[in-house]
Amino acid sequence: MLDFEKTLERTLAVAQPMASEDIRKLEALGYVAGGQASIAAAYTNTDAWAELFHLRDIKDGLAISRQSFSIRARIVVNEVGDEVLEQARHLVAASPETVFFHNLLGCIHLRRDEFEPAVAALTRALALNPDYSESLNNLAMAYIVQNRFADAEPLLRRDIENMPQSLRAHKSMGYVMLKTNRPKLAREHFEFVLRREPQSHGAHRYLGEALEQLGDETAARDHYAESLRLNPGWISAALPLARLLLTARDAALRDPTRALQVAWEACEAAEHRDAQALVALADAYQALNRPHKVREALDEAIALVAPADPAEADRLRARRDALAPDREPAAR
């Protein structure tokens, strides 16, 4: 969501653009003050701001710039309560022609899963600047999470035309291609990202899905596994990997024991509070002919889904009740 350098360059009320070395100075000072939280610390580090503004001899816009970036720092760590929302609304009211403030407000609504006001705020930002990269991407994301892929695609296409190297736009476009049954195009976008950012666990995960759709199960398995290595316990990568290890068309790729390990680690990472991970665990146990453990995993999943999805709970109960009698001890 955040593009630190470009946002500083485009939104501070200064006569001349911010120099890259100044951006690095601010970020470095924030890193010293904030340990690993380098960018968030830079936003809120008073000494860093004072040093930066001294470097540039900037007198105007200091207070409002600090406030806006303080809000942005809160968004980084997902602190998007009512207080932050009201601060962003105040900035928009005080300076309705500032694109960045509308973008901030839209980001907050998006993080709060308030999609209609997020779309409205981000649309206002783009009315002020149709090429503002952050708002193009954020509005696309607001559409993506609502499965409105046809609305997201032209926004991402515009951003890629303006900024061909934008990894964020390529990631999002790859996802849109994947979800609209265009796996070849999805593969191109995710491979573009990985050539420049090989540690992107998300790109590996969704490239794996694209490759699986294209019939390359071996490569799909490898990318799912790499995603999980880069982000251990990530359920979004663990579930398709475990499923592929159980159901691959190529029998040589099937590995129920490894599938069990992947599913178990996903359940542990989620503290056994993710029903899909528990069902994947049950699938792996069933492939290994351990009905007692299948029943245990399904019981946990049923308890989680029953309050919100009674029909799914009934389906899982039917599966559990159809299991063969226990033929194993209770130990894992």
Question: Distance between termini?
Answer: 42 Å
The total count of helices amounts to: 19
Classify the helix fraction into a percent range: over 70%
* Strand count: 0
Beta percentage is: under 5%
* Parts with pLDDT < 50 across at least 5 consecutive residues: 1-39, 56-62
Average pLDDT over all residues:
83
Order of helices and strands: HHHHHHHHHHHHHHHHHHH
- Secondary-structure-derived class: mainly alpha
Biggest beta sheet attributes: none
Kindly provide the radius of gyration, computed on alpha-carbon positions and rounded to a whole number of angstroms: 24 Å
Molecular shape: globular
Briefly characterize the structure:
With about 325 residues, the protein is mainly alpha-helical. About 75% of the residues lie in helices and about 0% in strands.
Descriptive notes:
- Helices cover 73% and strands 0% of the residues.
- With 332 residues, the chain is an all-alpha fold.
- The chain has a domain at 1-79.
- α6 runs antiparallel to α7 (99-111), α10 runs antiparallel to α11 and α11 (167-179) packs antiparallel against α12 (183-196).
- Residues 1-39 and 56-62 have low confidence and may be disordered.
Topology:
Elements (H helix, E strand, L loop, with lengths): L3 H8 L8 H15 L3 H7 L1 H11 L5 H15 L5 H13 L4 H13 L3 H14 L4 H12 L4 H14 L4 H13 L3 H14 L4 H13 L3 H14 L4 H13 L8 H14 L5 H13 L3 H15 L4 H12 L11
